[in-house]
From TrEMBL:
Residues 92-288 form the Peptidase M28 domain. This is Peptidase M20. Residues 1-19 form the signal peptide. Gene3D superfamilies: Zn peptidases. One of its GO terms (molecular function) is metalloexopeptidase activity.
Length: 303
């Protein structure tokens, strides 16, 4: 009898483990990336016609997911004025799902890329249509499973021009900065031959470790920690994407991304290069983390 009970318990373990994982629509995830990285988007350079097309698509998907807007629509306009480029009307797209705690988690992914060079379009499938696809998947999930904390979803513009969208977002945040518990930033999730997705930031915010350690591997992807120590030089990702602006404001962050690959910032960063199984599982790992941290994060600051 005891052996039978033990065997039954062991057989039940995989189902218990899988029940902790967030289910996502992999076909929709891939479709979102395919659309955003199409030649018709022209590389999604800030201020371009392709950028406007990407905005329209993302807004439609926000509405389909059921995100609320903080004002009349999802758009947050701002100007980019640097020595390199001037954009009169750059646009962040911001929506949210209300929680009960009075605090917020901000999920970010930049939708802009670098445009085109001559006739070659830099489609930016991994950088960063993949992050936007995962953001949309997370929005869809939490709209159906109401969160404990308000979750703000921000598809940011101008990352490639100096993290401009993140600067504009925190310059005029939709909620008080003191109410933002955490930034979860996604930038390049879909191409890695070793099945490794990195979570960067716990070196600066070690209180994140108990939450990250609860994220279990999926079939095609496992979570790695690192790329956040100053002595790593270029391999320190602390300042390399939109989370850097949150870090500057002392808002804790986790940055999910893959290591550089041969297609980075090249015309070959196309949808056909994406490892579809890895990408779906990498996006799933981010959602698993969001589910854990939303449910278990209390009022105690992470910094």
């Amino acid at each position: 009898m005891k052996k039978t009970i033990i065997l039954a318990a062991l057989l039940s373990l995989p189902f218990v483990a899988s029940a902790q994982r967030v289910l996502l629509d992999a076909s929709q995830l891939l479709q979102d990336v395919k659309v955003l990285s199409a030649d018709s988007m022209g590389g999604r350079l800030s201020g371009s016609e392709g950028s406007k097309m990407a905005q329209e698509y993302i807004q439609t998907r926000f509405k389909q997911a059921g995100l609320k807007a903080f004002g009349d629509d999802y758009k947050q306009y701002f100007k980019i004025n640097t020595q390199r480029v001037q954009v009169e009307q750059a646009t962040n797209l911001v929506g949210y799902i209300a929680g009960k705690s009075g605090k917020a988690i901000v999920v970010t992914a930049h939708y802009d890329h670098v445009g085109f060079d001559g006739e070659e379009v830099f489609n930016g499938a991994d950088d960063n249509a993949s992050g936007v696809g995962a953001l949309l998947a997370a929005a869809t999930y939490f709209a159906k499973h109401p969160p404990k904390h308000t979750i703000i979803f921000a598809a940011l513009d101008g990352e490639e021009l100096g993290l401009q969208g993140a600067k504009a977002f925190l310059g005029r945040p939709p909620v008080p900065q003191n109410d933002i518990l955490l930034n979860v930033n996604m930038d390049m999730l879909s191409i890695n031959k070793k099945g490794e997705l990195y979570a960067s930031g716990a070196y600066h915010y070690p209180k994140l470790l108990p939450y990250l350690n609860q994220v279990k591997p999926r079939a095609g992807a496992k979570l790695m920690l690192g790329h956040d120590r100053p002595e790593q030089g270029h391999d320190d990702w602390t300042g390399q994407s939109d989370h850097a602006v949150f870090h500057k404001y002392k808002i804790p962050y986790v940055y999910f991304g893959v290591e550089d690959h041969p297609y980075y910032h090249k015309g070959t960063d196309e949808f056909k290069q994406i490892n579809q199984q890895f990408y779906a599982d990498a996006a799933g790992l981010v959602l698993d983390f969001l589910k854990v941290v939303d449910a278990k994060l209390g009022q105690t600051p992470l910094n």
